Amino acid sequence: MDKHHALANEFEAHRAHLQSVAHRMLGSTSEADDAVQEAWFRLSLSDTSDVDNLRGWLTTVVARVCLDMLRSRKSRREEPLDARGSEPVVRPEAGVNPEQEALLADSVGLALLVVLETLTPAERVAFVLHDMFDLPFDEIAPIVGRSPTAARQLASRARRRVRGADAPPGADHARQREIVGAFLAASRNGNFDALLAVLDPNVVLRADNAAVKMAAARQAVGAPKLARELRGAAAVAESLSGRAGAAQPAMIDGAQGLAWAPGGKLRAAFRFTIARDRMVAIELIADPAHLLQLDLELLKD
Question: How many separate domains does the chain show?
Fold first, then answer.
């Protein structure tokens, strides 16, 4: 197999991911195809012998191509969406649960309608790369030509608009705070049934490696261990009962969350995804580098 053919095979292995990145930035299937094709063209002309992470390299290239396309579109005042509207998902990547992908499709479609109408190109790129693809701000910064701090601010502004923070305050934030407050009270009291009441039956808990290690170091004898991923309300409630007791309410990336900051030093954060008055996803973050990237404000308990 010649070198060009091998490179083409590597590129095809990442095509679905690149298509998702481009489509969620641009909201247009045809433009996303163009952006991915441009990435292949640039790859075919580049020396990538020193590239350790080809997926990351290609993601950066696609993001820059999309940013240029968004800026060009803005200057021409073109309609950003295809005539058939936003189609948030192209081909699901291997291993993605189809039902979860369908739910994500709905939320991404609504977000794109807002993002494409109201955000600057740089805000759009920062929001998509960080919130949808978990790219750190120090990698986003050179793409949008800003510092990591400025890139974080771009994403934060975008997030507030997508979540309706620029609209007149409604009951949604208040209701989310009630749900997070109920979760915190139940965890402090070790109330298993109260925890179940705020969790979706299919809730997913994800913890980073630092959080798992931290939990193990503080593990009470006989208590359930924290895993990298848990699914189902019973398993999540059992694992978190008593574990969030020392946390306090916080705004994290524009949404209600919890933070553990003994002595004023942030050690861990809980991010929640809430739908239909239930927690459908919980993310426990303790990695110091990740914590620094959060837009976090402690609230009074």
Answer: 2
SS3 95: coil
In angstroms, the CA 119 to CA 208 distance is: 31
The one-letter code for the residue type at 11 is F
Name the pTM for this structure. 0.50
Who contacts 161 (Cβ-Cβ below 8 Å, separation ≥6)?
Answer: 114, 115, 118, 119
Last residue of a domain, one of 162, 187, 215: 162
The residues, ordered by sequence, that sit 6+ positions from 62 with a Cβ below 8 Å of its Cβ are 18, 21, 22, 35, 36, 39
| Residue type (1 letter), 107 | S
Task: Map tokens 């292995």 to a residue.
Answer: 13
Exposed, middle or buried, 102 (CB in 10 Å: 0-12/13-18/19+)?
exposed
Domain that holds residue 144: 3-162
What are the pLDDT digits (tens) for 104-131? 444 444 445 444 556 788 988 998 898 8
Q: Kindly state whether residues 143 and 12 are assigned to the same domain.
A: yes
pLDDT in tens, 129-155: 988 888 899 999 999 999 998 899 888
**211 CB-near residues (< 8 Å, 6+ apart):** 226, 268, 284, 285, 286, 287
Element (H, E) at 171: helix 171-189
Query: Hunting for tokens 């290609």 — which residue is that?
Result: 58
